[in-house]
Amino acid sequence: MDGLIAWLSNVQEDLESSSHTLSNMRFARRDDYAESECRGITYLCLKGSPPQNVMVVGRHFDKYERREGVWGFTHRALCVDWVQLMPRVDAEFDLTGAVEPGKMGPDDPFYSRLELLPGTVKTVGTARGN
Q1: Start and end of every SnoaL-like domain (predicted)?
Q2: Structural domain of residue 22, as residue ranges?
Q3: Cβ neighbours around 45 below 10 Å, total
Q4: Are 21 and 81 within one domain?
Q5: Which secondary-structure segment (H or E) carries 109?
Q6: Cis omega (within 30 of 0) on the bond before 87?
Q7: CATH number, domain at 39?
Q8: Is-above-0.85 flag for pTM?
Q9: Are residues 84 and 99 both part of a single domain?
Q10: pLDDT tens profile 68-111
């Protein structure tokens, strides 16, 4: 897990923002074992000159087990079905005057606009956001 966190931290340095969506989920279960396939779409706004947007479409193949009554991941495999690079159109389509832009890290509106969801300022360090 430490390796994954370090890798994600390095990747985030090259990003202005990112978004991840999972859909088309299929699950199968037998006793205390389950498997799933789901489609993932990742949008990345890369820093650079010129900045670019990247869309990655792929699938997750996950395995789960129930241990002592709790379900958890035991394995994840990924495949990439396609990748598309797209030029940025920010200068032509700027909504930042009307809508607050998202940001990587603690300056993102998520942290100041909500208080009940785990990870927001008021729930950090509390058991269940109570």
Answers
A1: 2-76
A2: 11-88
A3: 19
A4: yes
A5: helix 109-113
A6: no
A7: 3.10.450.50
A8: no
A9: no
A10: 999 999 999 989 999 999 877 655 566 656 777 777 778 888 77
The amino acid present at 117, given as its one-letter code, is L
CA 87 – CA 51 distance, rounded (Å): 7
Phi/psi at 45 (5° precision) = -105, 105
Whether 1 maps to a domain, the answer reads: no
Task: Please give the angle made by the CA atoms of 58, 5 and 90, to the nearest 5 degrees.
Answer: 60
Asked, for residue 2, whether it belongs to a domain, the answer is: no
52: how many CB neighbours lie within 10 A of its CB?
A: 14
Q: How many domains does the chain have?
A: 2
Asked if residue 129 has pLDDT above 70, the reply is no
Same domain (yes/no): 68, 101: no
Question: Look-up: residue for tokens 């990655």?
Answer: 56
Contact 58, 80 (CB under 8 A): yes
Name the token pair of 21: 């969506």
**Structure confidence by residue, pLDDT tens digits, 2-12:** 665 676 677 77
